[in-house]
Amino acid sequence: MRNMPSLLSASLRGMSMLRTITRLALLLLLTVARSAYAADEVPILIRNLPGYSLDQANAALISAITNHNYTFVRQQAADARLVPQVLEGRKVRIVYFCNFAKMERALNIDVRAAQMLPCRFTLVEAENGSVSLIAINPAWLSEGLNNPLLHPDCLELKRDYLSIMDEVSL
To answer: Which of 19, 113, 129, 157 qualifies as a cystine partner to 138, CB 3.0-4.6 A?
Structure first.
């Protein structure tokens, strides 16, 4: 009977050690899963649009947006409201669009998704007249939110972005 407290103490130490090992294993598993689900994402999606003027690219982009079940919201110069309107840059346009059902679903999962809504593309005309279509990759952004429930929606949004970009670049 005298050894009973030492056996109990050894048993508790063993359970504590097992709990610690289990927690470390779970942490390792979550870390591996986290890096596996989005490790290949690039931050920027870009398409060059040879043969397009900025106005032509803008019209094609708005058409592609509506063809993919999104609503065109608005467009503006990149420096709108930062400088007088007569001084706004005419070579960079930001085009905002949204699919309200997808937006509602994403916000119901994680309100931090608001930082990437409404969706947006940027059209940039270089000095040589070439036009590029640029967007921030929503799947890459979702990595920073660290919410595995939101990531599938962001992957779907990335696929939509790429489909719109492909349609514009045809």
So the answer is: 157
- DSSP conformational letter for 147: -
Q: How distant, in Å, are the alpha carbons of 41, 45, 50, 113, 154 from that of 144? A: 12, 17, 33, 11, 12
Give the Cα separation of 95 and 58 in Å (integer). Answer: 8
Q: What is the per-residue pLDDT across 25-71, written as a single tens digit (0 to 9) for each? A: 444 444 544 544 545 889 999 999 999 999 999 999 999 999 999 99
For residue 142, what are the CA distances in angstroms to 18, 55, 107? 34, 31, 13
The alpha carbon of residue 88 and the mean position of all alpha carbons in its chain are separated, in whole angstroms, by 28
CA atoms within 13 A on the CB side of 12: 6
Q: Read off the tokens for 154.
A: 């962001």
For residue 147 the two structure tokens come to 């919410």
**Three-state secondary-structure class, residue 90:** coil
pTM over 0.70: yes
- Nearest-angstrom CA–CA distance, 123 and 91: 8
Are 59 and 103 spatial neighbours (Cβ–Cβ below 8 Å)?
no
* Residue written as token pair 């967007």: 135
